[in-house]
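S2.1 Query sequence (Diguanylate phosphodiesterase)
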Amino acid sequence: MRCHNCAMGELEIEVKFTNNDQQTWIEQVYHYLTFHYQVKRIENILVVSEDALRDLHDFCKDHMDVNEVFFRIGSQTWKPILESVEIMNAHWIDDVIKNKQVISYYQPIISSDKQVYAYELLARFIGKNGQLIFPNEIFSAARTRGRLYALDRLCRMTAVKHAVRLQNVKAFINFIPTSIYSPEHCLKSTIMLAQQLNLKQEMLVFEVVETDKVDDVEHLKTILNYYKSKGFSYALDDVGEGFNTESLLKELTPPRYMKLDMKYVRGGVSKSDEKQQIASRLLEVANDLGSIPLAEGVETKMILSG
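Output structure tokens follow.
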């Protein structure tokens, strides 16, 4: 069964009216919308399509107190109805996902003896004009429209396909923990594709991105245990100062790899005692856990004398 959250169906938006004194308005709004759209109602909450939301947005702006009308998609937090225009303006992300306008770039991971140890497969997105769309813009739009699940799945599947070109090196594939509701459903297609392409389990490393933003530790443990049960290893990304996972790491199966955040590598690390202390701490923790430490964003070489 395909994961419901990864599918690209029509948006369903909940709209909540918080002023119980406006029952007459709510009744009239509901009556009007049902003549033009499919609408569900649960007390003061209407479940509407995106087209209905456009009408409702304009009506509320003209005839109601917009501070008393809120909307949300899925499990997102409630937001003022006027902000729903952001959802409509981000509709272009649906085409990016449906048309699979994504490719993978190969970022080499180099060992200390200057050999290519692995490649991180980075998702890059192509606009209709053929130009690249920055990942931050893509993921921001996907979050706004509740499409993060579908986008993350597309990126994972694309990366697995690109991993076929690699030989005798590992492939690091990113995933966002909050984009996965149930590992058994959301990750099943990814695992099946890897098996169909005859990719060995030890070749693939699934990398937890936005590690420093993990709130639901139990959910993350479920995901990582699922990957482990299928024979894959995992990496933690963006390790650095203020990283809350010294306690988190005690609850997880030790990661095979730990990545030092790029901001502690670039920008004069050779002259910064603070950054060097953070890097040293990563090495210490990684050694204690038996993990392999990685530094992200190394672009210069320093020759030490003496």
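The two ends are 62 Å apart (CA to CA). The chain has a mean pLDDT of 85.
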